[in-house]
Design brief:
two-stranded antiparallel ribbon, 2 domains, 232 residues, 2 helices, alpha+beta, 14 strands
Length: 232
């Protein structure tokens, strides 16, 4: 089989994974505390070409690329004031803890609300973990004491969906909780759109390569068949 088809196809698969990550980032460009994903690409080992008659080295030939891994930019983002009493932001490092059915998960999204029981919960109704490990009670005036909200230092943070992270807790983090504010999304929509266009063009280039090779093989097959038929 023509090696160029595999090389082009591998590039298209890698770009498709990159586009999926970019599309998810764009969908969360206004999600508080969202962290951007980056798909890194690596190349397969080069194939060393040589002249079959003389043995002289011609040079290397790339054998395609693949999506190596997905990394998450965990850098804290700037906060914006909302003046909503249950909106919380962490200035500096750290994560809020949230008690989910799958166990405690961690997030930078501090867009919280009140449960019917007067507890601080996230948008999915999961209770926020307090500094002492319990739940956070909202005061009668609708305010929450920032000092009662847990801020955890997390190592090996990995995304778990719904803007949650999992990892190993290494005590309390140094970040301070701000009330009436939210951390911004880690997405720059303009830059992300440029990345999307560049990825789409790279994907299109792979398509055109496959179409060109396919057309060349078709023409070659037709010409060989015609030459053979004429000789007979």
């Amino acid at each position: 089989m023509e090696r160029g088809l595999y090389i082009a196809a591998s590039g298209m698969v890698a770009e498709q994974m990159r586009q999926d990550a970019i599309a998810n980032d764009l969908a969360n460009s206004s999600t508080p505390g969202y962290k951007a994903d980056r798909v890194t690409q690596s190349s397969f080992g080069d194939l060393l070409l040589s002249n079959t008659s003389t043995g002289q080295v011609v040079g290397p030939l790339g054998t395609g690329v693949y999506a190596d891994e997905m990394t998450t930019d965990l850098s804290p983002q700037a906060t914006r004031v909302t003046d909503e009493p249950l909106d919380l932001a962490i200035a500096g490092e750290g994560y809020f803890g949230v008690q989910t059915p799958q166990g405690v998960r961690y997030t930078r999204n501090g867009q919280f609300t009140a449960s019917p029981q007067g507890l601080l919960v996230d948008q999915l109704g999961n209770p926020v973990v307090g500094r002492g490990g319990g739940q956070v009670q909202i005061a009668a005036n609708g305010q929450v004491d920032a000092a009662t909200v847990g801020v955890f230092r997390l190592t090996g943070a990995t995304k778990q969906g719904d803007n949650y992270f999992a990892g190993a807790v290494a005590g309390q983090a140094a970040g301070a909780v701000q009330t009436g504010a939210l951390e911004g999304s880690g997405i720059d929509p303009a830059r992300t759109m440029v990345d999307m266009i560049a990825s789409f063009r790279a994907y299109e280039a792979g398509q055109k390569v496959i179409q060109t090779i396919d057309d060349t093989l078709r023409r070659t097959g037709t010409q060989v068949a015609n030459a053979t038929g004429g000789a007979s």
